[in-house]
Design a protein that fits this description.
The structure holds 2 protein chains of 2 kinds.
Chain A: H1 10-20, E1 27-29, H2 35-46, E2 53-56, E3 61-63, H3 76-81, E4 82-85, H4 87-99, E5 102-105, E6 109-110, E7 116-117, E8 120-121, E9 130-131, H5 138-141, E10 148-152, E11 184-187, E12 190-193, E13 200-204, H6 210-215, E14 222-229, H7 235-245, H8 258-271
Chain B: H1 2-8, E1 14-17, H2 26-34, E2 40-43, H3 49-56, E3 60-65, H4 77-85, E4 92-95, H5 98-110, E5 115-117, H6 125-128, E6 133-136, E7 143-147, E8 154-162, E9 168-169, H7 177-183, E10 186-194, H8 197-201, E11 207-209, E12 216-219, H9 237-246, H10 250-262, H11 267-274, H12 276-281
Parallel strand pairs in B: 1-2, 1-8, 2-3, 3-4, 8-10, 10-12
Antiparallel strand pairs in B: 5-7, 6-7, 8-9, 9-11
The chains are: A alpha/beta, B alpha/beta.
Chain lengths: 275, 298
């Protein structure tokens, strides 16, 4: 029996939960600057899914081999390990339609139906309160994929809202013609699904009261009848994350904002010998 | 570079300086700032620091894109300041998804009236951008989203090497440079090395852009710093991190532009100012591909 870990952090738990959503032999895709997701993918590859393949619009490549997370060498996986590196057109017209890879998205806002927004915050598109990075591949994938997964490192009412300002990622919406809305969501508080087309709590993390999750969500959550505590990582999973996959702790960048995040970036770059 | 920008980039034009995290021609962007172009429409799938700098310098009226960011670091503060607060000038934006931009360039290069995509349906993208439209598939598959062709007035492409005719070879992250070049009315190629035509002919599969569509070839070593050129120099991560701080404030940004763009005559002065130590820090290790045999047909 694998030994459950006692000593683990929430970023490690998120990566472990992401890994557990993957199956051996699958093809997964990833965006830029998503180290929690990459750490989860690599953890799956080193445990139950050795035949996991990586397809990326970012690296515009397909890889089978892996490399530990880096910040200075963020493209190491794609530039150093690619089997094919074909450019944006081949990524969009060949790789993504052919493989329809599973992908984890990080929304700036998401509603109960799983519609999400990475366009802008505010009602006036021409003069938004906050301009977001933009949609990237989100309206390309979410309109026809069956494999949209969500992660939110910092669960709050800022992200989980009654109504998103702009829909870039299509959820469980009557407007949908193909594919399906998000299947799963992991946050720093719990795990969720959309079993009935509305976001539903399926497990809460160690030390987190379900009531607190509801208080930090801007709409009424459904609760699964068998809601339970999230199974902890195993000792081996934590060891792999800390020692093999991400010894620099790059995954923790996604848990932080503002100055703390910039300081951690600086520390990591120093450890990588770049500064 | 001075000549190429003066000749081909005029006020009011649409300009695509393409490249995805690598091969981003900062040298051309800086020259455009130095020549004080105005009212440009900047086009790129993934705008990053060079467009942030150009927008802070006031060269742009509009930007067409699919994803913005300081890669791995965070927001583009100058773009946000222009969009949210109109500083230093309001910036009109026209946004697509990645596939939407791929479709636009491809339709532009292929001279098609539009490009159909499985994207957008049900999302708010057609509401925020009226150029994203829907047609009924003539083959009975229901509605499908379409985007219009994109034909920039000028495309500026940075690559490893070209010959003097502009036959350009690029390897690594290919991005959308080839399609942008074929879609554009004028093409400026900027390279790390000018090589003999025989070098190009020895490996024609690596030629991304034929000299036939190239209007100007610029030899500008380190022209993509602080981004990288695979096999020539690595990304200057320290610069990306520092830019986050500088760019938060319009005054600091302008001071930086004064020091590193307006205050210098050309790229050679920039590289000199950057210093040997920085260039040494960015020197990459070697990873040559195995040579292949094309066979002799002479």
């Amino acid at each position: 029996m694998p030994q459950p870990a006692d000593d683990y952090t929430v970023d490690e738990l998120i990566s472990v939960c992401i890994a557990r959503q993957l199956e051996d032999g699958e093809i997964v895709a990833q965006g830029l600057a998503t180290p929690l997701v990459v750490a989860g993918y690599l953890l799956a590859k080193l445990t139950h899914a050795p035949n996991l393949r990586f397809a990326s619009a970012i690296g515009q490549a397909i890889c089978e081999d892996w490399a530990p997370l880096g910040l200075a060498t963020i493209e190491k996986l794609w530039l150093g390990k690619a089997l094919i590196g074909g450019g944006f057109v081949r990524a969009a017209t060949e790789i993504l339609p052919r493989f329809a890879p599973k992908e984890f998205f990080r929304p700036a806002q998401i509603d109960a139906q799983g519609n999400f927004n990475n366009i802008a915050i505010g009602k006036d598109y021409r003069k938004p309160y906050m301009r977001l990075p933009g949609t990237g591949g989100i309206p390309d994938v979410t309109t026809f994929s069956e494999h949209v997964y969500i992660y939110v490192p910092r669960h709050s009412k800022v992200t989980f809202v009654e109504r998103v300002d702009f829909v870039s990622g299509l959820g469980h919406s009557p407007e949908r013609r193909r594919g399906a809305g998000p299947r799963y969501c992991i946050t720093d508080l719990g795990q969720f699904d959309w079993a009935n087309g509305r976001m539903r709590l399926i497990s809460y993390h160690r030390g987190v009261e379900p009531r607190r999750i509801q208080r930090r969500t801007g709409f009424e959550l459904e609760i699964a009848p068998d809601v339970h505590e999230t199974p902890p990582p195993t000792e081996e999973e934590v060891r792999l994350l800390r020692e093999e996959i991400d010894p620099l702790g790059i995954r923790r960048l996604e848990m932080l904002g503002g100055t703390a995040r910039k300081e951690l970036i600086r520390t990591i770059l120093e450890r990588e010998g770049v500064l | 570079m001075q000549e190429a920008i003066a000749e081909y980039v005029r006020d009011g034009m649409s300009v695509a300086i393409e490249g995805f995290t690598a091969f981003i021609c900062f040298a051309a962007g800086h020259e455009i700032i130095r020549q004080r172009r105005r009212d440009l429409t900047l086009i790129r799938m993934t705008p990053d620091l060079i467009y942030d700098q150009m927008i802070a310098a006031g060269v742009a009226r509009k930007m067409i894109f699919s994803y913005l960011g300081n890669p791995g670091v965070g927001s583009l503060h100058c773009v946000r300041r222009a969009v949210e607060k109109g500083i230093p000038a309001p910036l009109e934006i026209e946004e697509y998804s990645h596939y939407g931009m791929v479709g636009r360039y491809t339709a532009g290069a292929m001279k098609l009236p539009f490009f159909p995509l499985r994207s957008y349906l049900g999302s708010d993208m057609p509401q925020v951008n009226e150029r994203i439209r829907t047609v009924e598939s003539p083959y009975g598959d229901g509605p499908i989203a379409v985007v219009p062709p994109l034909n920039p007035d000028v495309a500026i492409i940075h690559a490893q090497r070209a010959d003097v005719q502009g036959n350009t070879q690029l390897w690594g992250l290919l991005g959308i440079q080839k399609e942008a070049a074929f879609a554009a009315r004028k093409v400026i190629v900027v390279v790390e090395e000018i090589v003999d035509e025989a070098v190009i002919r020895a490996d024609p599969n690596r030629t991304l852009i034929p000299g036939l569509i190239v209007d100007a070839v610029v030899h500008e070593p380190y022209g993509a710093h602080p981004s990288y050129v695979q096999g020539y120099y690595d990304r200057d991560n320290l610069f990306y991190l520092n830019w986050d701080k500088i760019s938060r404030d319009q005054g600091q940004t302008e001071a930086w532009l004064e020091e590193w763009v307006y205050g210098l005559k050309n790229r050679a002065e920039y590289i000199q100012k950057l210093g040997e130590e920085t260039l040494e820090r960015l020197r990459p290790g070697a990873a040559p591909a195995s040579p292949i045999d094309y066979g002799a047909y002479t």
